[in-house]
UniProtKB/TrEMBL annotation:
PROSITE patterns: PROKAR_LIPOPROTEIN. InterPro entries: Conjugal_tfr_TrbG/VirB9/CagX, Pilus_synth_Q_C, VirB9/CagX/TrbG_C, VirB9/CagX/TrbG_C_sf. Coiled coil: none annotated. Residues 104-119, 163-176 have a biased composition (Low complexity). Keywords: Signal. Residues 181-256 form the Toxin co-regulated pilus biosynthesis protein Q C-terminal domain. This is Type IV pilus assembly protein. Residues 104-140, 153-179 are annotated as: Disordered. Belongs to the TrbG/VirB9 family. Transmembrane segments: none annotated. Residues 1-21 form the signal peptide.
C-alpha cells in the first residue's frame, strides 16, 4: 500500500478573493491536508478538496499530466475542468496518480477528524523511481521535506498509514505486514528488520549512502517485501538524498542513490 513519505502540506488558498463567485465556498469547507510525492516535473504545487471536488494547482506553463484516481478497482482516468488557476477533479478520491511519459507523482489525502478509515490499494509494483529525473530538493505528495536546514542529514517523515497502527505492530491478522516506526529510528534499521522478516539479505555493506537517514513518524505497508521497500524509499525522492532499491535474484537487497545505476543482471553480494 503506497504511502508517500512525504510531508504534509498546509497551504493558503491562492486567488480566492478574485475567483468566480460560482465556485466560492464558505470557511471550513476546504481540506488542505494532502501529501505529495514523486517527480516534481508532473506534480502540482498544491492539492486540496471541497464538497465540489478536488482542486489541483500547477505551475504556470506546465502541461497538465494524465490524472488517475486510485481506488479498490485500480486506476481510473479522471476527467477534469479548468477553473483557472486550478484544475477541478470529481470528488470522492483520496489517492491520485499523475503521469507524464515515464514520470509519475502521487497525491494522497490525509484523514481528517471526521473521516472514516480507508484502505487504499498499492500502486503497480513496477513503478520504480530509477527512471525518474531528480526532483525538488524538498521532500513524498507535497511541498517540502520536514528537515531543519541546519542539520547535516535530513530526516524523512514516514508516509501516513491507511490503517490504524501503533508503535508496536499488533498481532491481529488485520495489521499491515510491514511496519516502519519505533523502535527503529532510521531507514536502514527498518529495512534490516524487514529483510529478516521476509527472508532477504540486507547488511551494513548493502547500504551505499554515506549517511543514515532518520525516520520520523510511523506507517504500515501491505503487500510483499519489494512493494513495501519501494514505498518506503519513495519518501526520499523529493529530499536531498533520493534513494532507490536494487533487488537481486539471490534475495539480496541493496540501497543506493537514485543517480547511481543498479545492474540487476548480476547477483548481488550476499
Amino acid at each position: 500500500m503506497r504511502h508517500v513519505f512525504p510531508f504534509s502540506i498546509s497551504l493558503a488558498l491562492a486567488g480566492c478573493a478574485t475567483a468566480p463567485a460560482a465556485w466560492q465556498a464558505g470557511d471550513g469547507l476546504y481540506h488542505f491536508d494532502w501529501r505529495l510525492s514523486g517527480d516534481a516535473a508532473v506534480a502540482p504545487l498544491q492539492v486540496f478538496d471541497s464538497p465540489e471536488g478536488i482542486w489541483l494547482q500547477f505551475p504556470a506553463g506546465q502541461a497538465i499530466p494524465a490524472i488517475f484516481g486510485l481506488g479498490a478497482q485500480g486506476e481510473q482516468l479522471l476527467a477534469y475542468q479548468r477553473r483557472d488557476p486550478y484544475v477541478l477533479l470529481p470528488p470522492g478520491w483520496s489517492q491520485l496518480v499523475l503521469r507524464g511519459g515515464r514520470r509519475q507523482a502521487y497525491a494522497q489525502r490525509q484523514r481528517g477528524p471526521g473521516d472514516a478509515p480507508a484502505r487504499l490499494p498499492a500502486p503497480p509494483a513496477d513503478a520504480t523511481s530509477s527512471g525518474q529525473a531528480p526532483a525538488l530538493a524538498e521532500a513524498p505528495v507535497a511541498s517540502s521535506v520536514a528537515a531543519d536546514s541546519a542539520q547535516a542529514v535530513p530526516s524523512v517523515s514516514a508516509p501516513p498509514a491507511p490503517v490504524a497502527s501503533s508503535p508496536h505492530r499488533p498481532a491481529s491478522a488485520a495489521s499491515p505486514r510491514f511496519f516502519a516506526g519505533p523502535p527503529d529510528t532510521t531507514l536502514r534499521a527498518v529495512l534490516s528488520r524487514w529483510a529478516r522478516q521476509a527472508g532477504w539479505v540486507f547488511g551494513a555493506e548493502h547500504w551505499l549512502p554515506t549517511v543514515d537517514i532518520p525516520l520520523q513518524g510511523q506507517a504500515g505497508f501491505d503487500g510483499d517485501f519489494k512493494v513495501a521497500v519501494r514505498q518506503l524509499l519513495r519518501a526520499t525522492e523529493l529530499g536531498d538524498r533520493p534513494l532507490q532499491p536494487c533487488f537481486y535474484a539471490n534475495r539480496v537487497l541493496r540501497v543506493l542513490p537514485l543517480a547511481q545505476s543498479c545492474d540487476r543482471s548480476v547477483a548481488g553480494p550476499a
